[in-house]
Amino acid sequence: MTSNLKKYLQDPFLKHLWAEIRKAGSLKSISLDITHVCNLRCVGCYYFEEGMDKYQSPKDETVFDDFLKKEKERGTNFITIVGGEPSLAIHRIKKIYDNFHTSVATNGIRKIPFEGLENLPIGISVWGNHDTDKTLRGGDKINIFQKALINYKDDPRAFWYYTVTPGGAKEVENVVEQCVGNGNYVLFNYYSDMNRLGGELDCRQGFAEVRLAIDRMIERYPDRILMTSYFNQVISTGQLYDEKWGYEVCTNLSTNYELNFERFQNGNPYNPHFRAYNADFSTTRRCCTGVFRDCDSCFDTWEHFSWIMINLKKHLATKQEFTNWLTTMYLFYLITRIMDFEEGVKLLPEIHQRLQNEAIFSEMEVT
How confident is residue 195, by pLDDT bands cut at 50, 70 and 90? Predict the structure, then answer.
């Protein structure tokens, strides 16, 4: 396998991507709820569905400062900021930004200031077109999508974290047009029907049409889509070679959470440093997006990034398979700005071109 890797890296483009990742270095990451408070109650939000807000954030700021100090001493160098709604705790975002690599997820209602956070990767949630998003996130009253478009118009830090519902393929083109037209990039996510509302929200119907719609957007906007056709296929099918997505293969599990200890003995790889911290800054939960939820309902993009990234050996049989892995790895480092973003995005069209044949094959399978 080592000889295969050396052979693949004779390709100058792949060699460059590999070198950039190596130069950026390895990550020791955690996920952190910086507040338990949110200004929305989105339909199907994992955070409130599993009562994670019961772990309330301390008002004493020294508790937060001590937590960051301990994590730095433990070797943590990357923090994914979630919540609650992080824009309600800007001062904590700033402290993390000044001391760690980081990325933040926000609902977009309140703009995260630019000054002092100039290179902060900001993922802005949107769950469909204005009507769908208003229904699922705005309680049929607030057009959150429109507010976020205004707040992040031409903001170089912003990318849309577009959660597509299983029946929402017909909305994808219009939503992406608006996001790209707003001067932003797009990364996709997939809706979990945790409320069991069914219909077009039912993740059990699969994401075949959504996958094709996303692949068409990759082809149309190769310089703006931060997801490859290969990554799209893995998440939407839940299949990585001989592995089926679920708890037994998930790699981002809190390593100090007792109920996970048996999982760590099954031989499947996992991130030995990872912890998903609650908003009390002391306790952890099973994983980023769950306590007891069925993993069959998890289509979280960040979890699946890790699943692919940690399985390099599975991708070494052919040059195309290695390219699938390497481009996924590169995009994670690019989105989180661990490498130079402005230079890296120039490579997006070439990255997508290298995987185009895979997307065509995937579409032929579905149709």
Answer: confident
Q: Where are the alpha helices (DSSP H) in the chain?
A: 2-8, 12-24, 46-49, 61-74, 90-97, 130-137, 144-151, 169-181, 208-220, 229-237, 301-309, 319-335, 341-344, 348-354, 356-366
- Give pLDDT tens digits for 92-113: 999 999 999 999 999 999 999 9
The H or E element containing residue 81 is strand 78-82
Q: How many domains are contained in the chain?
A: 1
The DSSP code for 75 is T
Kindly report the pTM of this predicted structure: 0.94
- Measure the CA–CA gap between 119 and 103, rounded to whole angstroms: 10
123-146 pLDDT tens trace: 999 999 999 999 999 999 999 999
Who contacts 21 (Cβ-Cβ below 8 Å, separation ≥6)? 326, 329, 330, 333, 339
The C-alpha atoms of residue 157 and residue 61 are separated, in whole angstroms, by: 27
Q: Of all helices (H) and strands (E), which one includes residue 82?
A: strand 78-82
CATH code of residue 347? 3.20.20
| Burial (CB count within 10 angstroms: exposed 0-12, middle 13-18, buried 19+), residue 293 | middle
Structure tokens at 213: 């719609």
CB atoms closer than 10 angstroms to residue 27: 18
Domain limits at 284?
A: 2-366
Q: Give the number of other CB atoms < 10 A from CB of residue 270.
A: 18
